[in-house]
Amino acid sequence: MPKDFQKVKTTDTDEEHWQPVEKWRIWRNVLVLGFAFMIHFTAFWGASNLQSSVNADESLGTFTLAAIYGSLILSNIFLPTIVIKWFGCKWTIALAFLTYVPFIASQFHPRFYTMIPSGLFVGFGGGPLWCAKCTYLSIIAEAYSQITEEAAALIVTRFFGVFFMFYQFSQVWGNLISSAVLSSGKNIVAMNVSAESDECLSIHSCKENTEDLCGANFYPGITTGVNPNLDPPPSEKIQLIAGIYLACMVIACLCVVFGVDSLKRYKRNRAGSATGLSGLTLLIVTLKHLFNPYQLLILPITMFIGAEQAFIAADFNASFVSCGWGISNIGFVMICFGAVNAIAAIFAGGISKKTGRVPMIAFAFVVHVGLLITLLIWKPTSINKVPFFVVAGLWGLCDAVWLVQINALCGILFPGKEEAAYSNFRLWESTGSVITYAYSPYLRTDAKIYLLLTLLVIGVGAYGTIELIERKAKRDTLVTAKTNFELVNGKLRALEINE
After folding, report:
1. Model confidence pLDDT, tens digit, residues 60-105
2. What is the pLDDT of residues 229-252, one digit of tens each?
3. Is 170 part of a structural domain of the chain?
4. What is the pTM of this model?
5. How far apart are CA 225 and CA 323, in angstroms?
6. Could you list the residue ranges that cross the membrane (predicted)?
7. CATH of the domain at 320
């Protein structure tokens, strides 16, 4: 047994404790896991952000993203608790990484019969992957809490903040790779647009086309003849990007296999929702948890998280960046989104420790409402590039707050039931994404923005109900404790008088 993991048993409780040095090993697991997810999703998000623009013919890219999140819904219902029971959290993560590989490989030959099946495969691996990650972080946070004697809720939030810092940097590296490749040897086509289409006779008329047809007015199906900004890049560049992304996924899998400890190290004397149950019973646990009142109340904001991520990946990139500025610039804009998202994620946990969860949620709500209203009135053009980065950056800030706070809230509200709780989280997050991707090819962008705004208001309202219930429960507990103390104190005083 390693010296830094000596077991100490107390005579009264017979519990196992860890030596203080073990906390550095726990931090190593958090950091390696975050790094592996960053490398893995460098590939996935880099490819996903290009789908609605690069594979725009017959909305192939958008339908592939819908297939991913559609299968992710089924995956979250049937697979996480069962797969985690079979393989454990560590090996579930490593194996799930491999299910993403066919999606990247299909970029070499993008057709419906290659991309849709590979997208479905991603979804089936995604459910166990994210549930295993959330469960792993929650359980090692409990061990860390025992070592440091800090509140487990604060540790969970801190670990999720560090993890999502790494995770959101995947947007930076993935988009940096795609931008570097797509921008290399790029030909300037703006001066030759008159040869491309009779509808675009000059640079000035092209500018007018982008103002009239892009942004909130964008409707899927606009041709490159009407707007040359939508002209897809050469297939050779897409294949080079895919090759780099495949290498990233292999590296990520190896990081988990050789750099992350098995959860058996920290799961002593702890019974989770997947412990000792049959496969059918595990499915019932997941579905039964759906009807928990708190789970129902957190459902709308969870769906919003999935919907806003789908919107920024597909609709914002297609309607604003590609249409208004050009496909090759998607990566640069999304780098801003990823960088702000990553930095905000690491600070979200620390700030909420000082301010509390409610002010953080209120801040994200106000900023996100402002962003959606801005998108309704903004006319994107390549002449003024600053708004692209401002909107992407603020969107990344809000997304970081939603992810860190709502993920941590699930761990706080449902201790000991993490597998079922996070399975439901991913289920409804995926539902929000797949619905958004499904209607994306058929609605104008302003309609999508109104739908997103409505879901946000409903979600934050339901979350507020949870906070009110929790505050009332704490207030009632304090009143009961005070009453019991006064009763006991009164009896002691009566005994003193009689004596």
Report:
1. 888 998 899 888 888 877 788 788 888 989 999 999 999 999 999 9
2. 667 778 888 899 999 999 999 999
3. yes
4. 0.72
5. 12
6. 30-48, 60-79, 91-108, 120-139, 151-169, 238-260, 297-318, 330-352, 358-378, 390-414, 449-466
7. 1.20.1250.20
